[in-house]
Design brief:
By secondary structure, the chain is an alpha+beta fold. It has one domain. Helix content is 38%, strand content 25%. It contains four helices and eight strands. The strands form two sheets. Strands 1-2-3-4 form a four-stranded antiparallel beta sheet. Strands 5, 6, 7 and 8 form a four-stranded antiparallel beta sheet that branches. A hairpin with a 4-residue loop joins strand 2 and strand 3.
């Protein structure tokens, strides 16, 4: 039938695949990042900044807005708009939203990440050989809104623990893809 393929492997090839714990996983690798979510956050912050500046210009410079509106004077409205702006600006920073790039192509698991708040943070990269990867754990804080991933790697006779990667900015599908992929490389006892 069209589209049906039959792959045959020699016993030596199958043993080699199994030894590396990669079996046929070389054909099921993935690479993705959450740049769309981070760009969306930046656009929301930009729009909020423009709207706040327009309000200040219309209310205080041009004096085109006549107060009181709904019984509230200009000071109360300004405080409301500034509070909304601060929530939009600092919420991602408070939740440690990070740009996250993930790849399991080749022989390594790669994470690249940095803070996605108002001021971008230090760029970090973790690259772990699939054969030395020993596992991961997730940590949830603040009612599950702050989610982080801690990776472990075998180094000599001990296990190295990497600093947490905050994955709260990943959507649920992306988080599931990361977990499924990492589960494939955890050593089986």
């Amino acid at each position: 039938m069209a589209g049906d393929y039959l792959f045959t492997f020699s016993p030596l090839e199958l043993i080699a695949f199994e030894k590396n714990r990669l079996s046929l996983l070389k054909f099921k690798t993935m690479t993705f990042d959450n740049s769309k979510q981070i760009i969306s956050l930046r656009i929301k912050l930009f729009v909020a900044t423009v709207l706040l500046l327009v309000y200040v210009a219309l209310a205080y410079v041009a004096k085109l807005i006549k107060f009181p509106i709904l019984g509230l004077n200009d000071t109360v409205w300004t405080l409301i708009f500034v509070a909304i702006y601060l929530v939009i600006a600092f919420f991602p920073m408070f939740l440690n939203y990070q740009y996250v790039y993930f790849s399991d192509d080749g022989d390594s698991i790669v994470f690249r990440y940095f803070n996605a708040g108002i001021v971008g943070g230090k760029k970090n990269s973790i690259e772990i050989n699939k054969t030395t990867f020993t596992g991961y754990k997730t940590e949830k804080r603040f009612f599950g809104l702050m989610l982080s991933l801690v990776l472990f790697q075998k180094v000599g006779q001990s296990i190295a623990k990497y600093p947490p990667i905050h994955i709260g900015a990943l959507n649920k599908d992306q988080r599931n893809k990361v977990f499924r992929s990492l589960n494939l490389y955890i050593p089986r006892m």
